[in-house]
Amino acid sequence: MNADSIDIARTPRPEATPARTAPGVPADRAVKRRRVLDILNAAGRDSLLLTSHTALTWYLDGSRVHISLAGDPVAAVLVARDGDHLVTFNNEAGRIAAEELPDGVSLHEVPWYGQLHDAAAGLGRDLTGDVPLDEAAVTAELRAARQPLLPGESARYARLSGDLARAMTDVLSAARPEDTELALAAALASHLVAAGAEPLVLLCSGSSRSGFRHPLATHAPVGRRAMLVACARRDGLVANATRWVRFDAATPAERDAESRIAAVEADIFDATVPGVRLAAILAEITAAYARHGFGQGQWELHHQGGPAGYAGRDPRITASAEDAVVLNQPFTWNPSGPGVKIEDTVQLSGSGIRVLTADPRWPSAPVNGLERPITLQL
Questions:
Q1: First to last CA, the chain
Q2: Contacting residues for 210 by C-beta, under 8 A, at least 6 apart
Q3: Domains with residue ranges and CATH for the chain
């Protein structure tokens, strides 16, 4: 077998499933529509045109509106006071009608060679007599509208996150030092696709490349220690996680750094409370790095994560991010240092942080009252 090939024996074979239907929950969709109508009322407008992956998959409650993972959506949604209107190309309409269209959304077609956004905006002018409000004009308002996950979303997100965590365990438990980084990434991709998820990001670094924070996989063997990272999307929601495996005894320096980066993460979790602004959390992150021996400037060497959900980070935290934390909001923080990183998808509940990307088979240790993943020792 080629060193970079997928070991099919490691790939789960799911039972046959029924044809896909739109995942949206009517009660959740009604809340989302009310939130968007509130945005329209505040702006004094009669319709809003949604065109981004993040806004579309949120508003449609999980519908797939892409073909290429790297391409633009193949649909646009006009939210008008008379109802919701999805506009798509004629060669996509059949699939979307059969598998992705929520109840109560009207479907409109344009030729595959047509101008999707122009057609959707024209529909808005016909319905309301005015140009629809552009999504870009209410970016912050839409982000605030999708921050607290609704019950159906929370359930779907927990299932996706669990599937990602189990896939990580399955792949890394079977890993060997001679496996290449690409082989581990390919095996993880196979597990995720088999679970109906789209691997948006797959990173892997072996012991020879542990200095890179965003290590795109290569043909290098992983050697004595490896990191595997994934962002997986299903029904619009994106779960994120990082795991480490080691094939010989840890050095004292490795154990010390792993313990300290977990302590940084614990401080971030403590700072993630309702009402606090993201910029204030970043200030706490900066202090945490210094407090735990990484140096105050460590945060500048890699992004620190932020709110999650319908984007990998929504938004990525910066000193200018003034969004306020709310209950039921998901997060993926990812503090890192030289040769160490910790990352899980979590949700802020009334009782605190709940880890979503958890697998009881993975080794863990309590950190500030919360079980956190440690390096898998093989």
A1: 22
A2: 225, 227, 339
A3: 26-145 (3.40.350.10), 151-377 (3.90.230.10)
Alpha helices in the chain (DSSP H): 26-43, 53-59, 90-95, 116-128, 139-146, 151-173, 181-194, 252-271, 278-291
What's the pLDDT tens digit per position in 56-98? 999 999 999 999 999 999 999 999 999 999 999 999 999 999 9
The pair of structure tokens assigned to 126 is 């016909």
Is residue 75 helix, strand or coil? strand
β-sheet bridge partners, residue 331: 307, 346
Residue 315: Cβ-neighbour burial (10 angstroms; 0-12, 13-18, 19+): middle
Q: What is the C-alpha separation between 39 and 138, in angstroms, rounded? A: 8
pLDDT of residue 10: 40
Question: pTM for the full model?
Answer: 0.94
Nearest to 149 by CA among 77, 62, 215: 62
Are 80 and 49 in contact, with CB atoms under 8 Å apart?
A: no
* Burial (CB count <10 Å: 0-12, 13-18, 19+), residue 363: exposed
Q: Name, in order, each residue with C-beta under 8 angstroms of 337's C-beta and a sequence gap of 6 or more.
A: 257, 260, 261, 264, 289, 294, 298
- Got the DSSP string for 99-141? IIPPTTEEEEEE-TTS-HHHHHHHHHHHHHSSPPEEGGGGHHH
CA-based Rg of the chain, rounded to a whole angstrom? 22
Query: What are 118's two structure tokens?
Result: 């122009």
